Amino acid sequence: MPVAEARLRLIDGHHDVGGLPSDPLVFQAECVEAFAASWTARGFAASTVGTDAGVLERMLAALGRPAWEVTAADVDRVVGELASSGRAVSTRRNYLQVFRSFHRFLEVRKAAQIEAAFGVRLACPVDEFNSARHVSDDSPARDPPPVPERVGEFFGFLRDRIATARKYAPAARDYALFRTLYHAGIRCEEAVLLDAADAHFGRGPFGKLHVRFGKGARTSGPRPRWVPMLDGLDLLLRWFIDDVRGRFPDSAVLFAMSPAVGCRPARSATGSGT
Question: Which of 116, 138, 210, 244 is in Cβ range 3.0-4.6 Å of 14 for a Cys bridge?
Fold first, then answer.
């Protein structure tokens, strides 16, 4: 009796496998919900998650097809329509950033399901040719950013000034403030609106700043966010709070102003006076 040979043969039977999505739009809606849930798990504020989810839904509606079927030409068309309608560069950039983040989520979490159910291998359609520049149309970058050596000289000047200034506390406060702007990457107005309670040293491996009055869109109001204290910023802020902050009048403000000036800037993050 001839011996039967054992062979392996690949069978394209993914259509018969249970659990695969069949309706692309329903599946995409479920992916959007899972994407939003992942942002919540990473500690983003509910207002930020809701705003970005709305941006993503508008972007997907404008594209007119599931994210895994979107091509670079589709992105070019939508970005062009946004520009033609007068949307700001920052708005167009935000649309692209949220969509690219969602596409990355699909690549990491849903690629196998998408390829098995819809026969599409994911490739992000956002590239260098349809990404909005990180400057506004009316403010071209003319001067290059300072080199690290120049930044080091600046902070060295502020640090040496603490030892020679007539008043120790304001000089130390200025040094801590500028270091916070540099290492945390927050705006000046966001920094001066920080309270001491916004420094959460036990959150994450390095601690985080809760920027409660983050810059928002023109009509959305402030957008809170969490910013990690990197490059030793946590040690600097601990020194400032323990050794310097108590030399100013008692208040909740982190970088308190001198008594003659007050504890808050003239304008708040929402543009209204204090």
Answer: 116
Q: Using CA atoms, how far apart are residues 151 and 179, in angstroms rounded to an integer? A: 10
Asked if 255 contacts 191 with a C-beta cutoff of 8 angstroms, the reply is yes
Query: Six-digit token pair at 61?
Result: 């509606």
Report yes or no on whether pTM surpasses 0.85: no
Residue 250: C-alpha distances to residues 75, 259, 274 (Å): 53, 10, 18
Please state the domain extents for the chain.
19-118, 148-247
Nearest to 98 by CA among 138, 159, 62, 52: 52
Which contiguous run of DSSP H or E holds residue 176? helix 168-184
Which residues share a beta bridge with 267?
Answer: 273
Query: CA-CA distance, 31 to 147, in Å (whole number)?
Result: 42
- Distance between CA 247 and CA 238 in Å, rounded? 15
pLDDT digits (tens, 9 = 90+) for 214-239: 876 555 667 889 999 999 999 999 99
Q: For domain 19-118, give the CATH superfamily.
A: Tyrosine recombinase, N-terminal domain (1.10.150.130)
